[in-house]
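for the writeup, i need someone to sanity check this before i put it in the appendix. the sequnce is what the collaborator sent (i think, or maybe the updated version? ugh). structure was predicted straight from it, no edits. if anything looks off just tell me and ill rerun, i have time this weekend
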Amino acid sequence: MPGYAEFIQKYQTYDTTHDIDEQRDRDYARLDRTGQIYLDYTGGGLYADSQMRLHQQVLAEHVFGNPHSSNPPSLAATRLIESTRATVLQFFNADPAEYTVIFTQNASGALKLVGESYPFEPGSRYLLTFDNHNSVNGIREFAHAKGAEVTYIPISLPDMRVDMDSLDASLDLAGTDKNNLFAYPAQSNFSAVQHPLEWIERAHAKGWDVLLDAAAFAPGNPLDLGKYKPDFVPLSFYKIFGYPTGIGALVARREALEKLHRPWFAGGTITVASVQGNKYYLAEAPAAFEDGTVDYLNIPAVEIGLKHIQSIGYETIHERVRTLTGWLLDNLSGMKYSNGIPLVRIYGPLTTVKRGGAVTANFFDKDGGLIDHRFIEQEANKHNISLRTGCFCNPGAGEIALGISKPELAACFTQPGHGQRLSLDDFRLCIDGKSSGAVRVSVGLVSNFEDVQVFLKFAEGLLD
């Protein structure tokens, strides 16, 4: 197998990212100390030791109380929450006069806020690409319930990108007197395809509000909300810098938030509520969307994490991810048995152009037979290689990549006994002979050449 000399000859800009190696030695030494080959950055980022120390210091040196009060500890918590809110806006270059930050449990919580509150109605539309995460797909249930039309834009093999003619034809369907929502991922968590951010204004011009899922995109790419202006951006912070888990955000345009109608009220979301008067008044955003008490002890860790990413720099992170992804693609796609049968089939682009740091594939034996992705994960676990298998909560991309047709799915879902529940084992039986998932290897913030090389040697060993 080609080594470092061949790698650096082809990907010379990797040499500009060696600050990350020093960061890894200093802040992520537990990886090498425990012999972990972590290749699941799309599933979750890793935290730095310094993030933990700084957060612990904040908690140890101050007293914080529920921010819904006005005593000194409560005011101290409020100041840190608002400081973090401002840091999030600054991180994404979002004008505070135009955008606000609503803290949620995660990206899925942010998406639910939009789905349950968006003013869908008969005649309005919900448009989304095939390769959306299930938490984006789930908004269609709110749309259906309110009588709106739901339309999916297909993606095409082999690169799993959207055909521009199909996109324009779908965008042209917006009812000009209705509210219409277009949702797509800035980066697919299945294929790592990066869809153009220019679609945002293209959709705005045709009468759509735009929901841009940035959960898989933000860990390795800057999102400039001063240049590109989606209406709703859901985020999970742990995917960017590992800690804390359990906190996400909806970064939203204030103008778009005024369209939303919350289906209930909760503690913290109102200015006044009455039992006898049977009336309530919502607070202004963001408070109107933050149900109950926010996680005020962990929110300060978000600001620490964002500043950690800024100290490394997106340019350095992006180039590290790009070069390692290129090496993965080059070598995996070239692995073949002695009879010429390829070891893997990669789903998505085979170059680093307009794609992120995840490589999704299935493995095959020397006769071209599919190797169960669960077996690959089991074998990888024996080598302390952490990767991800399944459909990654992205059924649309999976169905296209794995060749599972609409008639097959219809037959599966209408089988006796599948009215309310369908187990994964039942689903596998429905599509007998086809894979129900794939293997995803994803590099990230502190990945290095050695991590990728260990995985490639593992994959090469399967040829034996």
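The mean pLDDT is 94. The chain has 19 helices and 18 strands.
thx in advance!!
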